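[Primary structure, fold]
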Amino acid sequence: MASGGLQLLGFVLAFLGWIGIIISTAMPQWKMASYAGDNIVTAQALYEGLWMSCAIQSTGQMQCKVYDSLLKLESTLQATRALMVAAIVVGLLAIFIAAIGMKCMKCMEDDQVKKMRMAVFGGVAFIIAGLAALVATSWYGNRVARAFYDPYTPVNTRYEFGSALFIGWAAASLALLGGAFLCCSCPRRETSYPPTRGYPKNAPSTGKDYV
């Protein structure tokens, strides 16, 4: 029962992490314009994401523009896109694989060993998805930080971390934690020994000798 509860907890955490990865990928707030300089402009907030750039006016109106050409984008942005999409696809496969290996599901009940292996494979897939999302968000965040502290970057073009980065970091952590729980939830297989053979008991002596 304890391993089943740990398995269910790992699946729920990994699933929530996968949902967070999707939300982070779709959000345009991967980086936001910094107003740390002398000329502070509060009339609008500028955001840039993986797919579009947005400007939010002080009235609350949002205007977004999708990037025109994929070939004109920076290589780091293209790589970040690819890693996040790969994390989503691998996470989707992990959901189906791990669901088959869950003890509460009736699939493959006749072979518990294969069922346990499916749960472990699903956990490994969740870990791969979490690592892909973690690398993508950390790489993008490192690029934003380097540009912010670069003295040659104009003050009015500096950006800070957006909320999508923090959601991506949290989602990647949940996917990694949930995948680790799935990998550790299966009990170890006990070594089975062949049953010992009983030796026939000697018949009690009657004290009579037969010729």
